[in-house]
Amino acid sequence: MHKHLAQSVTESDTGRLFIDGDWFPNPLPANIELADMAYPDTSYSFTTFFSEKPVGFSLGYASGNYGHSMFTTGKNGEIRVGRYVVLQCTRIISNLLVSIHDHCMFSWGSVLTDSWLTEQTQAPALRRQMLEAAAHSPNRHLEMTDPQPVVIEENVWVGFEAVILPGVTIGRGAVIGCKTIVTEDVPPYAVVVGNPGRVVRYLEPTDVEVKE
């Protein structure tokens, strides 16, 4: 975990980091990585973060979590956020992997999830088994049986209350309209709207690759 953040933090005797002035005075999880100039906002965003991965969450250089986005993970969940990414009141749910590349923007109320109830998980016997397991777990988190990774490529803009469902890859430079439900892969530079989402036009690729 990095301490050169866009917020002032204090390290406890046990090495845990607290955001100074945080209204929810819990430490940040020990298994997250925050790059220089990252803005994690508040530890409240991690109240449903149960990842047991060595690094269950990473926030890249100059990326920010604003308006206390919520990061919900199961024990095998992982969330990777690249550089210069804006998360505005965004909900990310992972039981496997949600990966966001550089220069992306997410409006308030948007949701990304790699887990969903399928016909199989809605079968009465399996649903009963899953609920019983959640009831006896220390955090009452429902571990989904068939998560599918979500990938957001560079320079994507997601509108407010849009929902990105499991197994979806959104191509570079795409725009997802407000309240759109994305159920399948989106081509690069596509503009997608509706429920289910459909491509209504393509943008001119005017962005360029950034050389390191």
UniProtKB/TrEMBL annotation:
Family annotation (PROSITE patterns): HEXAPEP_TRANSFERASES
Keywords, sorted A to Z: Acyltransferase, Amino-acid biosynthesis, Diaminopimelate biosynthesis, Lysine biosynthesis, Repeat, Transferase
Membrane-crossing segments per the record: none
SUPFAM superfamilies: Trimeric LpxA-like enzymes (SSF51161)
Pfam family, any one: Hexapep
PANTHER family assigned to the protein according to its UniProt record, in alphabetical order: 2,3,4,5-TETRAHYDROPYRIDINE-2,6-DICARBOXYLATE N-ACETYLTRANSFERASE (PTHR43300:SF10), ACETYLTRANSFERASE (PTHR43300)
Protein name, per record: Uncharacterized protein
Lineage: Bacteria, Pseudomonadati, Bacteroidota, Cytophagia, Cytophagales
